[in-house]
């Protein structure tokens, strides 16, 4: 067995022979973007240009990125942490400016133009934009254009006017994407769902009455309540001129699948969903779908996860706008102190869902322990 002294000496030799050590000794700022070094005796990492006292070589470890150093258990130096905060703020300002450009343009600027204005390469800008917003620049532009189109149709503009005002430079380009943007023909959307057919059925589950509705693209509503008639009125308000059709035997199987999912969310829902909202709402809803059954999160954690840490109230608003109960699990969002509140379908249902999921997660853990022999 090698002695600690031998191991330490070998580490020192390896570090002294590494060209990165010369950059640390020379405090070379040109290498700051290439690697960081960590000190095992302090648990801290920093950039090569750091003005801190040089550590002993045997105590040094090199990493390709701050993320790799943090994954190994090291924390940023005070100066490094300040740099990261400043960089994050700079990126947020750059992305906010890019979003304003996208929203103000008649046609979405291409990636190269946005990156040039930001002073970044297209690859770096694309990565920063997605990390900040949760969307690619193209997805953000598409979502904004869809929102403008829906606003124009809701405001009574003609279909042609709304199409061009939203940034589609030809009718053919729009109609090729109409189903993804609106879920139905634009004339039908403008008329409150006229000519659109939405199948629905109301059933019962352990949480009370449940309404399941689906259009051509998939399940568009899962509503919970005490009064079946109120659930139907909610659906009618969404598309007042749509043709609402009571579910047939095939659709009853869809409802049964949804009810089974509500009773046991951990099983997952293998049905297509018609998820449509603003760009921000869709970012929130995607983040919610990544919270596993049996776990909880907070509004502030979701806001941080989508790169908008100050948008806590907007996150709460997106949760309230959710029409797909359990499928988009806004019930897994709790207050910072762990208290349960603010659920569109009632706090009692939220508590019941959380308790059910926690119990199921515990059952899975116990079974896993038994299989591995850790359960006693």
Structure description:
The protein is of the alpha/beta class and 376 residues long. Helices cover 52% and strands 12% of the residues. It contains 16 helices and 10 strands. It has a 4-stranded mixed beta sheet. A 4-stranded mixed beta sheet has the order 7-6-5-8, sandwiched between helices. A hairpin with a 4-residue loop joins strand 1 and strand 2 (44-46). Helix 7 (137-154) packs antiparallel against helix 8 (159-165) and helix 13 crosses helix 15. The relative contact order is 0.06.
Secondary structure: elements and pairs:
Blueprint: H1 4-16, H2 19-25, E1 36-39, E2 44-46, E3 60-63, H3 66-71, E4 75-76, H4 78-104, H5 111-118, H6 122-133, H7 137-154, H8 159-165, H9 171-182, H10 186-190, E5 197-205, E6 208-214, E7 219-225, H11 228-238, E8 243-246, H12 249-263, H13 279-289, E9 297-298, H14 299-305, H15 312-321, E10 333-334, H16 347-372
Parallel strand pairs: 2-4, 5-8, 9-10
Antiparallel strand pairs: 1-2, 1-3, 5-6, 6-7
């Amino acid at each position: 067995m090698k002695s600690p002294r031998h191991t330490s000496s070998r580490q020192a030799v390896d570090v002294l022979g590494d060209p990165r050590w010369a950059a640390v000794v020379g405090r070379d700022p040109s290498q700051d973007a290439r690697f960081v070094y960590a000190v095992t005796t302090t648990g801290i990492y920093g950039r090569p240009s750091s003005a801190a006292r040089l550590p002993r070589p045997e105590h040094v470890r090199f990493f390709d990125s701050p993320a790799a150093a943090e994954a190994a258990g090291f924390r940023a130096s005070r100066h490094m942490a300040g740099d990261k905060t400043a960089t994050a703020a700079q990126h947020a300002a750059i992305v906010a400016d890019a979003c304003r450009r996208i929203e103000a343009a008649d046609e979405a600027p291409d990636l190269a133009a946005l990156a040039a204005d930001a002073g970044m390469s297209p690859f770096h800008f694309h990565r920063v934009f997605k990390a900040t917003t949760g969307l690619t620049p193209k997805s953000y532009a598409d979502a904004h254009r869809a929102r403008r189109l829906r606003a124009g149709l809701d405001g009574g503009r003609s279909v042609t006017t709304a199409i061009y005002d939203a940034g589609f430079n030809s009718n053919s380009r729009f109609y090729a994407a109409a189903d993804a943007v609106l879920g139905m023909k634009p004339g039908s959307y403008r008329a409150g769902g006229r000519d659109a057919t939405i199948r629905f059925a109301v059933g019962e589950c352990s949480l009370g009455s449940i309404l399941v509705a689906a259009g051509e693209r998939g399940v568009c509503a899962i509503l919970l309540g005490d009064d079946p008639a109120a659930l139907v009125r909610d659906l009618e308000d969404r598309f007042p001129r749509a043709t609402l059709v009571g579910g047939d035997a095939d659709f009853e199987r869809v409802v049964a699948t949804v009810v089974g999912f509500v009773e046991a969310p951990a099983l997952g829902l293998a049905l297509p969903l018609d998820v449509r909202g603003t760009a921000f709402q869709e970012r929130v809803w995607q983040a919610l779908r990544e919270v596993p059954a049996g776990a909880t999160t907070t509004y502030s954690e979701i806001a941080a996860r989508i790169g908008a840490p100050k948008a806590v109230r907007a996150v709460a608003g997106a949760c309230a706008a959710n029409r797909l109960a359990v499928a988009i699990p806004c019930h897994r969002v709790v207050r910072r102190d762990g208290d349960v509140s603010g659920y569109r379908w009632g706090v009692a249902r939220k508590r019941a869902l959380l308790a059910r999921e926690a119990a199921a997660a515990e059952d899975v853990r116990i079974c896993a322990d038994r299989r591995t022999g850790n359960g006693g």
